[in-house]
Design a protein that fits this description.
This protein is α+β, with helices and mostly antiparallel strands and 174 residues long. It has helices at 2-38, 55-58, 74-77, 101-106, 155-173; strands spanning 40-42, 46-48, 80-85, 88-92, 108-116, 119-122, 128-131, 134-142. The strands form four sheets. The chain has a two-stranded antiparallel ribbon with strand order 1-2. A two-stranded antiparallel sheet has the order 3-4. The radius of gyration is 24 Å and the shape is elongated.
Length: 174
């Protein structure tokens, strides 16, 4: 009778150990997605994101009240589990559709070459002028706005993962 109960607990433990890495990965994805809502990274301290410069000065007026790093939501949706190898879960963001993810997460400072397509410019005297396609080099300074990291980067994430693990292990005994 005791051996049967022990076997059932061992089976449930083995099943939980198999199912735990994807669950922990999903929890890490939720934690990283939550950074967009907080507009901060919960690392060793709450690192709030640097606000954007005055967008109405040179940009579009609809950017004034918009959340940081969210225009279409594509970057936030790109956070996912990339792979699970030997019970180690890797989460990542970006891809072909969001190549700017790394620049925003770690910050970027350097020269970038831009391809400018042909367009029509309106002159001060009211006339229009055709501008040819060309390239230009600009100096970019994108501040670090971390939204993804590991449990070594954040004690809050580590605590959430530990809490989920304990909860899952308690279910075995019940």
């Amino acid at each position: 009778m005791i051996t049967d109960r022990l076997k059932k607990i061992q089976e449930r433990l083995a099943e939980t150990v198999r199912q735990l890495p994807p669950k922990l990965g999903e929890e890490a994805v939720k934690f990283s997605s939550n950074s967009f809502n907080q507009q901060a990274w919960s690392g060793n301290s709450q690192e709030t994101w640097k606000p954007r410069k005055n967008p109405t000065k040179w940009g579009k007026s609809d950017d004034a009240g918009r959340s940081l790093l969210i225009k279409t939501g594509q970057l936030k949706r790109s956070i996912r589990i990339t792979r699970i190898i030997n019970n180690v879960v890797y989460i990542g963001a970006g891809g072909a559709d969001t190549p700017y993810a790394r620049a925003h997460n770690f910050g970027f400072r350097g020269k970038v070459e831009q391809n400018v397509g042909p367009f029509t410019r309106k002159m001060k005297d009211g006339k229009t002028q055709q501008v040819k396609e060309h390239k230009r080099t600009i100096f970019q300074n994108i501040p670090k706005r971390q939204f993804i990291g590991g449990d070594k980067d954040s004690p809050y994430l580590k605590a959430r993962l530990r809490r989920l693990t304990i909860l899952e292990l308690k279910k075995i005994i019940k």
